[in-house]
Amino acid sequence: SPADVDSSKGKELAIVHEEDAYAQTPQVATEGSDKVPGMYWMSPKQDVISSMNRMQRQKVANFTVGRDNVGYVSFKVPVDLTSIDLDEIFGGIVVLETRSATVYPNAAKKPPVGKGLNVPATISLDQSWPRGRDKRPTIDQKRLNKHIERLKKIPDTTFVDYNSETGVWKF
């Protein structure tokens, strides 16, 4: 079962930039490199949420924001979307870039823990491959094991899973 980014210890959702340690984001996808980030999406869909009444928008269950070729943030508790402009979610409140997920990048606009989207979530990031010195993904088992240990030690995260076949990291 997925673990969450633990906000119960007075910590806020972590800003995780996995690439800071050892990778760079290329502008174009080529053989063996990163896929270009695609379109943002949400579930339930934006038009479904827009058609909800105020009571329904106070407790939107299974809310997930994602971006093709990047990953997603799945909120573990029902979220209150009554005071959130849905048009500001994509790239504003939730920013998904290659190997990076940020919820509320602007600290001045971040609500208290437990409010809005500042709640426990599971994050899944695509393309989280271990990189060799040439910044390209590697399948070397020793590097792979070291990579998984590095992912497990990233501050303010709870490691859930790493799929070495797909390069998807969940925390």
From TrEMBL:
Subcellular locations according to the entry: Nucleus, Nuclear pore complex
Protein's UniProt keywords contain S-adenosyl-L-methionine: no
Pfam family, one: Nucleoporin2
Gene Ontology terms describing biological process: mRNA transport; post-transcriptional tethering of RNA polymerase II gene DNA at nuclear periphery; protein import into nucleus; RNA export from nucleus; telomere tethering at nuclear periphery
GO molecular function, one term: nuclear localization sequence binding
Family: Belongs to the nucleoporin GLFG family.
Protein name in UniProt: Peptidase S59 domain-containing protein
Source organism: Verticillium longisporum (Verticillium dahliae var. longisporum)
